[in-house]
Amino acid sequence: MGLFKKKQQEAKKEYDREKQRPVLHCSICTGEKVAGFKDVHTGKFEEVMFIRDDRDLEKFKSMYGIEEVGKEY
């Protein structure tokens, strides 16, 4: 029994590809970015994570197996 636990490999998470699309919500004023999914039918945005830099964006993409994310302002 050690003091530290080993990091486990994160399993890919899923989202409904038919009903949702990956989107980056970007603020023009503050530059804040939030990654999430937008419902194609209702337009409702579901926040997943705050994006501070390119590493966070790459983490979001790898978590869900996404190659490209659209931007909305």
Report on this model:
- With 73 residues, the chain is an alpha+beta fold.
- It has one domain.
- Helices cover 15% and strands 33% of the residues.
- The protein is built from one helix and four strands; from the N terminus they run βββαβ.
- The protein has one helix spanning 54-64, and strands spanning 20-26, 33-39, 45-51, 70-72.
- Strands 3-2-1-4 form a four-stranded mixed beta sheet, covered by helices on one side.
- The chain starts with 19 loop residues before the first strand and ends with a strand.
- The mean pLDDT is 88.
Give the distance, in angstroms, between the N- and C-terminal Cα atoms.
49 Å
Q: Let me know the number of strands.
A: 4
Question: What's the overall average pLDDT, rounded?
Answer: 88
Report Rg.
Answer: 15 Å
> So how many helices?
1
Oligomer: single chain
Widest β-sheet, arrangement of strands? 3-2-1-4
Q: Could you spell the SSE succession in H and E letters?
A: EEEHE
Question: What are the key terms here?
Answer:
73 residues, four-stranded mixed beta sheet, 1 helix, alpha+beta
Short description:
The chain has one helix and four strands.
Question: Which helices and strands occur, and which strands form pairs?
Answer:
Blueprint: E1 20-26, E2 33-39, E3 45-51, H1 54-64, E4 70-72
Parallel strand pairs: 1-4
Antiparallel strand pairs: 1-2, 2-3
